[in-house]
Every structure is written in structure tokens, then in C-alpha cells.
Design goal:
The chain is α/β, with parallel strands linked by helices. Helix content is 49%, strand content 21%. The protein has helices at 2-19, 23-31, 34-46, 63-72, 85-94, 133-143, 161-182, 186-197, 201-210; strands at 53-57, 77-82, 102-105, 118-124, 144-155, 214-221, 226-232. The structure holds S-adenosylmethionine (SAM).
Amino acid sequence: MKNINQSKNKQVNEVFNDVSSKYDLMNDVMSLGVHRVWKKRLIDWINPSKNTKIIDMSAGTGDITKEFLKRVGSDTEIYCVDPNKKMIDEGRKRLRNFKEVKWVCSHAEKLPFQENLFDVYVVSFGLRNFNDIEKSLKEAYRVLKPGGRFVSLEFSKVQNELLNKIYQTYSKAIPFIGKYLVGKSEPYEYLVKSIDNFHSQNELVEKLKDSGFTDIEFRNLSGGVVAIHSGWKI
Ligand SMILES: C[S@@+](CC[C@H](N)C(=O)[O-])C[C@H]1O[C@@H](n2cnc3c(N)ncnc32)[C@H](O)[C@@H]1O
């Protein structure tokens, strides 16, 4: 098990090393810009207020943090956490004007934070990449304050048969688009495979329950192409 996890860790790190400089462009191309709408819906549901302490897990190039800052201004304390140094470098460049954002290089499985620290733990398109989702969710629970909230945006299972067929066909084109734009198809083969292998909406609910979260709800966006899950530490 340890070896499988370590090799996933290495593979995922290589994937994001390869795509870091073109990550934002590829997101726009592959989702036809829709990822921006999904991310706005995520922040809408969180409905953040000032003086909230947030951990943006798997922050990558900082899209979610940027959206938070737009909504609540600089009174929010945000920690952007990601294990990939190149993704962090891109994020730092994009958010260089926001000195209040703290960047931390860490995996989700073992966080360098004390318990009961954050009001909100948000993770956007990160869960799929974790090498140990159970351990990471328990870490999320540990670092949240009592009354704190976990919110995830992630690819999920399309609910409509016809839409699913169209989506599956489109997925097959993604590695070719990647090859054309980034010069490599492998990272995008990983992307398609990791989406296929990831949990359904209800399976993720169960994982959150097992990690201690309560009042768990989810919302499908774009017919279940992605879903937002929310849970609370009571
Ligand atoms: C698809 S990007 C998401 C970036 C950003 N949150 C967004 O929504 O655009 C996934 C990120 O997960 C990070 N990641 C990979 N393995 C991880 C792990 N074990 N723990 C936390 N983050 C991880 C990658 O380095 C990458 O930056």
C-alpha cells in the first residue's frame, strides 16, 4: 500500500510539474471556460464573510483564493496549500499583489497546522489527486474549528445517460488537446483516468461521514460533471 501511495504521489507531482505553466489556459480550453462558473458557485455556497480563516487546499495557481479575495477583500486570512512547488510558483505570481495570502508547501495527508484552526477548508479539484483520501479528510476535520465547514468541488458522475455519452466522447479528445497545447498527452490521460476512477456523489458523502463530518449535502453542477460537497465539524 505504501509503495502504491508513494508512486501515486510521484506521478501526480510529475503531472502538475508538466502542466503548471499552461494550467490556467488548459482549464479554460478543456472546460470551455465553465470551470470559472463552477468555482463561482462554490464560493456562492460558502458565502464567506470577513475575518474568516480559510485553508485553500490544493490551491494550485490560486483561482479559489482569488475569488475569495474579490468577495471579502483582504480582511480574510487565507492559507494556500499545495505540495507542488511549480504550481505554487505560478500561484504566487498571479496573486503577487495580495501580500496577506500565505503559501504553504504540503500534502493534504499531513498538514503543518495545529488542530481547530480554520473556519473553512476548501478544496477545488484536489481530492482526486490525494494519495490517501481517508487520511486527508481526517486531517481536514482535525484542522477545522468546531463549527467549521469543509467544502469540495470535484469531478463527479454525470446523471443523465445522453449527457454522459457526450461527455465520455469529449473526454477521449482531452489528451489530444493537451498534446496540441502543452506538448504532452500523458498528464491529460491521467486527468481522464483519475476522473473515471473517482468516487460518485454518494460515495463521497459516505467518506465524509466516516471522517466525522455532519450535515453533509451535495449539489450537482452541469448535470453532475462536477459536484460540490459540504460538511460541518460540529
Ligand atoms: C487540478 S489542480 C487544482 C488547482 C486549483 N484548486 C483549481 O481549482 O484550479 C490539483 C492540485 O492538487 C495538488 N495535489 C496533488 N497531490 C496532492 C496531495 N496529496 N495533497 C494536496 N494537494 C495535492 C496538485 O499539486 C495540484 O496543484
